[in-house]
Specification:
The chain is mainly α. The protein has six helices and no strands. Helix 2 packs antiparallel against helix 3 (52-76) and helix 3 (52-76) runs parallel beside helix 6 (143-164). The mean pLDDT is 79.
Length: 168
């Protein structure tokens, strides 16, 4: 086996295993950490596919933005049990049949499409990186929209804090 195949198998195992752990756990913090591993594995798969711009964007948006927002939302939510006074970050829903059936049907549908379709590799895969052009674009032409998206995420975090705060 080549090192590329081994790296793919390790990243696929990491991604699928942490996605299943995210589905299976009832602890919200553990689900967020499993989501982090899933997103990290997906970014690694993008790197293996020579899509380094997509991998960096994936890390910036999902790991750097959305996941941190979810973690802050979990930490700022007051979920204390009145009887014990402890903070419980557990979900109350225990029905796993619907998410498993939806995920399995989606997987089987994609498997059927990918095995029955006439897929021809017409696109050349090059290892040349476009990351420099994207970085220059983010720092020059698209600096304002990029910062505006960061301000919107901050506003969403402040709004989540206000909603989660226990008003007396």
């Amino acid at each position: 086996m080549s090192p590329l195949v081994i790296a793919f198998l390790v990243l696929a195992l990491l991604t699928c295993g942490s996605a299943l752990a995210m589905l299976w756990t009832k602890n919200l913090l553990h689900a967020a950490l499993a989501m982090f591993l899933t997103m990290l594995g997906l970014a690694g798969l993008y790197v293996l596919a020579f899509a380094d711009v997509l991998a960096v964007a994936h890390l910036l948006v999902y790991v750097g933005g959305v996941l941190i927002l979810i973690l802050f939302g979990i930490m700022l939510t007051n979920q204390t049990d009145p009887a014990t006074g402890k903070n419980h970050l557990m979900t109350r829903e225990s029905n796993r049949l619907l998410p498993i059936s939806v995920g399995l049907s989606f997987f089987l549908g994609l498997f059927w499409v990918f095995t029955k379709g006439p897929w021809v590799n017409n696109l050349p895969v090059t290892s040349g990186s476009k990351l420099r052009e994207v970085g220059l674009g983010l720092l020059t032409e698209y600096a304002f929209p990029f910062e505006l998206a960061g301000v919107f995420l901050l506003i969403a975090l402040i709004g989540a804090t206000f909603v989660a705060k226990n008003h007396d």
